[in-house]
Amino acid sequence: MAKWGQGDPRWIVEEREDGTNVNNWHWTERDATSWSKGRLRELLVGITVENEAGRCEISELKQVEGEASCSSRKGKLIFFYEWNIKLGWKGIIRESGAKHKGLIEIPSLSEENEVNDTEVNVSKKKGDGDILKDLMKTAGTAKVREALGDYLKALKTEFTMGMILPTKAMAAQELTVKRKLSENTLQAASPALGVRIPTVALHMTELFDTAIEQLYRIFTVKDLVQKFSKSPAILEAEKGGKFQMFDGNITGEYTELLTNKKIVMKWRCRNWPEEHYAVVALNFVPTLEQTELQLDCKGVPVCEEENMKLCWQKQHFEEIKGLLQLTTLNG
């Protein structure tokens, strides 16, 4: 029998008011179903492929059935996910201008198979247009599998943040790492962990074929935000006003608005550490017949850098360009 105070440290429950899972020994589980549905929609809807024959776009998430979860035991993460996904796509043949629609079915996305082996079936409504179906079968399928890979990466990084809590040894290691960070590296407190997390800054630029007034409106008018995000939004475009986008996955607050010039926001993703916000600044710069959007973002968690870039490039820039193109065609 072990002497008092000399037991196996894995079973020692330290005196903590928050009742934290010390040393990550006990079983914990987190439901990822709702989060996954939102992230799959973000990553899949809006995918475009084109060649000299035509252009296709995934326009709709028709069905997403299944579940996902993540469990933690003895400091290890265990993932379970099983999805049946149906997507709608539409395309146009360049030469004739003919438009066609079809479906993409992913009958079984699960942890039992690698993403590259996941079955992706492409079909088209009756009639001509097989050239577009072939485009979706090749380039389209490749992009769908890439998006599924991004989902799994986010599931295993973004969603699980905070599930493996720092032990005393990990906390000491974290402090050592932080001392070596550049003085210019922003850091933010994480109440859930009781330690500080390293962050990075991002800078991106993008050109849009529209007037500066129209681009500014797309970021500040609820109806336009809902159109490019393809989801409900809450928007109070004024200093101190709140916003919520992409089914609640993105939330924040406007801290500065200079009409047609600049927007500054406190911005966070749902699965970032609790109460941690990045600062996003959008500068609208007029150029010859175009508008340049300059994005500067400070305070992004290091592990979220690639996801942040992907979010802005695919779910903002590309979707806004699609909306502008549609507005031009309808006009």
UniProtKB/TrEMBL annotation:
Domain Activator of Hsp90 ATPase AHSA1-like N-terminal residues, every copy: 29-163
Which Gene Ontology CC terms are recorded? cytosol
Pfam families assigned to the protein according to its UniProt record, in alphabetical order: Aha1_N (PF09229), AHSA1 (PF08327)
Share an example GO biological-process annotation for this protein.
protein folding
Q: Name one GO molecular function term.
A: ATPase activator activity
Could you list the residue ranges that cross the membrane? none
- The superkingdom of the source organism is Eukaryota
InterPro entries xref list: Aha1, AHSA1-like_N, ASHA1/2-like_C, START-like_dom_sf
Report the family membership: Belongs to the AHA1 family.
Question: What protein is this chain from?
Answer: Activator of Hsp90 ATPase AHSA1-like N-terminal domain-containing protein
